[in-house]
Design brief:
With 386 residues, the protein is α+β, with helices and mostly antiparallel strands. Helices cover 24% and strands 30% of the residues. The protein has two domains: 4-233, Rossmann fold; 238-375, OB fold (Dihydrolipoamide Acetyltransferase, E2P) (Beta Barrel). The strands form four sheets. The protein has a six-stranded mixed beta sheet with strand order 6-7-8-3-9-10, with helices on both faces. The chain is elongated and about 80 Å long. The relative contact order is 0.11. It binds adenosine-5'-diphosphate (ADP) and magnesium ion. The site of adenosine-5'-diphosphate has 11 residues, from α1.
């Protein structure tokens, strides 16, 4: 196990217009679990392949532990790989698939056998050891794939979408398993995924990428609650954050064109808005209150769509071109065509620069939220041990 540091890591494929990975800086702590999250084509796999040594580096540095590994052969980097299409060798039994790399490293038969049995036990694939890959289900193949990556006891474990071809139930099952394994083995791990739930559920910190560039690198809750920019805000969350154009009106309020929403501009928000006349306003669907009666600051509208999802009800209200999605506890009260009143929880509002998309809102509306240092004050304190 070791820390992994990427310094302005860049990859430009020949004949490509723009870099696939663009000056990526990332410091992964020893034993940490990191998710690289972003849309298809944003450079996640390229990053992982450079770390593994399967792809040359155009510029920048990869350090594992104390060693710069840019020029090292893949097998000398101490990384374990489980890629979604990193096939098992069909003619070999699972046991020999697992042993293959250990043999290549010159380990003795007894030690190899011991390690194979041990990892098979950890991943609960003992009964598969004497089967050939063709006899395995896709979930079993992924387990074997991961076992093969881990059996070498890598300094860094790299997983590229290991769950994306599995059906939903198996995916959640294996996800739980990966989390348990990490808690046990504490490999420094990077998982690549385009699935935000997977990233949120597994990772200590998430690196969100777009178009080869790092957008934000922080804990799941921080990335979710304080997205660094409009891209991150829109990428995490299902249904996604509502994002509107908002203008500073002569009335001194923040108005969403096409709607009757006119939000007060508090002194903190005024400071953030600065001299801007226009910005982007974001609010998650559960930051919107829906009611059949008008209250202070609520805005009338007609229900356009209702989605009954069993554990929540989503209500969409349309104002001209603008569709506002809310998510509320399950109710049968709302049907399309019904008049309702929407109200935004001010502390759930996010402000972004309308040109750069950068977040403005720290110290703005959300300043009313419970500050992190006072959060959990009501929790029962564990006795201090000494
Ligand atoms: P992701 O894993 O996030 O989906 P990739 O790292 O696979 O993205 O790809 C990043 C970009 O690099 C994409 O535009 C892709 O088309 C391009 N790319 C990936 N592999 C190659 C390659 N071998 N040759 C040329 N371009 C590539
Ligand atoms: Mg990929």
């Amino acid at each position: 196990m070791a820390e992994l540091v990427l310094k302005t890591l860049t990859k430009v494929y020949t004949q490509a217009q723009s870099p696939a990975v663009d000056q990526l800086n990332l410091a992964v702590r020893d034993g940490e679990f990191i998710a690289l999250l972003g849309p298809s084509g944003c450079g996640k796999s390229t990053t992982l392949r450079m770390v593994a040594g399967l792809e040359s580096v155009t510029a920048g540095e990869i350090r594992i532990g104390k060693k710069v590994v840019n020029k090292l052969h893949p097998k000398d980097r101490g990384v374990g790989l489980a890629f979604e299409n990193y096939a098992l060798y069909p003619p070999l039994k699972v046991r020999d698939n697992l042993a293959f790399n250990l043999r290549a490293h010159g380990l003795g038969a007894k030690e190899i056998n011991r390690r194979v049995e041990e990892i098979a036990c950890t991943l609960q694939i003992q009964e598969l050891l004497d089967l050939k890959p063709a006899a395995l289900s896709s979930g079993q193949k992924q387990r074997v794939n991961m076992a093969r990556a881990m059996v070498r006891r890598p300094s860094v474990l790299l997983l590229d979408e290991p769950l994306s071809h599995l059906d939903a139930r198996l995916r959640v099952e294996l996800r739980t398993e990966i989390k348990r394994l990490h808690a046990e083995q504490r490999f420094t791990t990077i998982i690549v995924t385009h699935d935000q739930l997977e990233a949120m559920a597994l990772a200590d910190r998430i690196a969100v990428m777009n178009e080869g560039k790092l957008q934000q690198f922080d804990t799941p809750l921080e990335v979710f609650n304080h997205p660094a920019n409009e891209f991150v805000a829109g990428f995490l969350g299902e249904p996604p954050m509502n994002i509107f154009r908002a203008v500073v009106a002569d009335s001194g309020r923040l108005v969403i064109p096409d709607t009757d929403f006119a939000l007060p501009i508090t002194p903190g928000v005024k400071k953030l808005i600065d001299s801007r006349k226009e910005l982007k306003l974001g609010i998650r669907p559960w930051g919107i209150r829906v009611s059949q009666t008008q209250t202070d600051g609520s805005v009338p509208g007609k229900v356009a769509v209702v989605e009954d999802l069993g554990d929540e009800t989503r209500v969409g209200v349309r104002y001209g071109e603008v569709l506002i999605m809310s998510s509320i506890p399950v109710t049968r009260r709302y049907r399309p065509g019904l008049q309702v009143f929407l109200r935004f929880n001010e502390e759930d509002l996010n402000l972004f620069d309308s040109i750069t998309g950068e977040r403005l809102s720290d110290g703005g509306y959300e300043a009313n939220q419970t500050a992190p240092e006072t959060a959990g004050k009501n929790e029962i304190q564990a006795p201090v041990s000494r």
